[in-house]
Amino acid sequence: MNKLIKKSMMAAAVTGALALASSAAMAQTFPYFTVNEGSVAGANANTFTADKVTGNYTEVISFGANNSFNVSLLWNAGQFVTNNGATPVPTQLGQTGSVVSQQYGLYALYTGSGTYSMNNGTTSFNFTPGGALSVYIDPNTNTMFNKPGNGSTAWTTTNSGDDYLIGTGMPTSGQGTLDPSLSTCGSSGGINCGSFGSSTSFALTAQGSQYFTSPNPFYNVSFQSGQFNNIPLSGTQTVNGSMDVIFGSTAVPEPASVALIGLGLMGLGLSRRKKQA
C-alpha cells in the first residue's frame, strides 16, 4: 500500500510539473529580431529590437468555381513593436509620400489561393500551399501601387526604381472566418466582420540580411494575422484592414504541440498506475 501511495504521489507531482510547463509554453511570446535601419540609403544609423510589425493591407479576392478563391494582397508596414507586441518602437519607418528624408517604406506583395465553405451564415476560408510573398524596402517612400483586376494577378508598382527586395516566401497554410452577424460588423460596411491567420515560408535576400541582422540565420517562417471587412462572396471584391506580422522557426515546437505532449505524458502515467493497481 505504501509503495502504491508513493507512486501515486510521484505521478501527481510529475503531472503537476508537466501542467506548469505546458502553461508556461502556452504563454503568448513573440520571437525577437533586430533591425539595422542604417542599411537603408538615406536613413540615419539606428539599430533596434522588436517582436512584431503592424500594418495595413488591401486585398483583391476573386471567387471561382467549386468554392475556390484567389487573393492578391498589398501590405504596408506601419510600426515596429516590442514587449510581446505591446510597446511601440521609435523608428524611421514612413509611408508613401513622406517628405522626411531619412524615412523609408516597407511593404509586401502576396498572392495565394484556397477554398471556402459556409455554415449558418458563417464563411470559413482555408488557404492551400502555393502562391508567393515578396517583401521590399522603398528608400524614397515614393512608390505608387496599382491594384490588379482580379485575385490571381499580383499588384504592380510605379516610381519603384529605388526599391529593393529583402525577403521572399511561399504561403503554406491559413484559415479565416467571416461572420456578418458579429455586433462589430453590421448589415453593410462593417469594419470587423471576422479574422484570419496564415503562415508563409520566409527567406532573406543578401540585402535583407543587412536590414534584419538577428537572429542569424534569420527565422524561416512568417505568421500573419488580421481582420476582415464584410464582402459579398461572388465575383471579384476588395477588402482591407489591419494585419500584423511576426516571425518564427519551424524547428521550434508550437505551444499547442508542447501542451499536447504534456497531456500525453500525463495519460501515460495514469495508464501505468491502473496496470499496477
UniProtKB/TrEMBL annotation:
Domain of life: Bacteria
Ranges of residues in domain Ice-binding protein C-terminal: 251-273
Signal peptide coordinates: 1-27
Alphabetically ordered keywords of this record: Signal
Organism this protein belongs to: Noviherbaspirillum pedocola
Entry protein name: Flocculation-associated PEP-CTERM protein PepA
Pfam families in alphabetical order: PEP-CTERM
